[in-house]
Amino acid sequence: MGNYNRFKGNYILKKVNKRFLIYIFIFTIFIVGIIFGNIFLDPEDNSNSYNEVFPDFITKNEDYFITRIGNAPIINSDTYSLNVWGQIDNPKNFSLMELQELNLIEQTLTTETIGNPTNGQLVSTAVWKGFLIYDFIVSLGLKENVTGIKYVAEDGYYVSHTLSQLLDNGIIGALYMNDESLPVEQGFPLRIVSPGAYGAKQPAWVISIEVIDRPLEDYWDDRGWDTSPPMDVDSTLFFPRNSVNIKVGEPLKIGGAAYGGTKISMIEYTIDLGLNWRQGNIIQSIDVDHVWVFWEINVTFDEIGTFTLYTKATDIYNNTQPMDDPVWQDGSNGWPKLTIKVIS
Predict the structure, then answer these.
(1) Could you give all domains of the chain from N- to C-terminal order, each with its CATH number?
(2) How far apart are CA 84 and CA 173, in angstroms?
(3) Taking residues 156-168, what's their average pLDDT?
(4) Are 307 and 213 in contact (CB under 8 A)?
(5) pLDDT surpasses 80 at 57
(6) CA distance 135 to 103
(7) Are residues 240 and 47 in contact, defined by beta-carbon separation less than 8 angstroms?
């Protein structure tokens, strides 16, 4: 028993000594790091460690933003049926195959969720393929008292459009996204795509289209929002996102996107709360309405201090972003900002 206790005591002592040596080693490395090069703690760290990388101009399906009121419904393509009914002469149920056999068109479109905050990232661009909703319902014979149509989704979401919106905006029933069948997360098998509208007006998993003779009904409008206005002119920062440290005279590249309105014509920035504006460079765009542009700004500072850089976009009709947008229930489009700390 004495030998066992002696062995046990030596084992515990060795274990304690080993742990102590590990602590001493870690502490030594920590101190050396502070003294020689400030490895672990650098209060003046140059925060230019962000990636100067733009996202894909056409957003990959798996990267497209997702907003919904519940879980994504799983709909069987073989048994799916779109019920078109109401104030029409020929109500009918359409299978997915019948919808796919309609005349289909493509629409490239940038969409932002209506609840996206200033400088938010809930905005994406995709190439949609589907049928024109206006032509589709007109082919079934409209009655004289029609005011619009109401879509109902499998998850209970609902949205309405007037006939003039259907015709003027070229709203489509999308069956494909970026040359693929609609992903489940994006509304398979049918999603409504409305150019120039917030995502709140573009329901997914649509199972019913009712042609109505009454005022429009919208899920979010019934909960205090106003989804009727089109997407406002807006811009966002891709990089840096919120704040950055740079040295005096060091170039800083800032990249982002602008969208909303009909077509963006200009991006500008200010570092003095809008007293003076300078124009940024639009580096990628396509000649299509309701599609974002990518922009780039290059700045340097010749003095130390903390600066706030704001951006604003302007469209071809001279609609521009306000500094602040306090009424967020119809979409928010205030100036995004970047805090820049310039050090010696």
Answers:
(1) 1-42 (no CATH), 61-223 (3.90.420.10), 234-343 (2.60.40.650)
(2) 13
(3) 97
(4) no
(5) yes
(6) 10
(7) yes
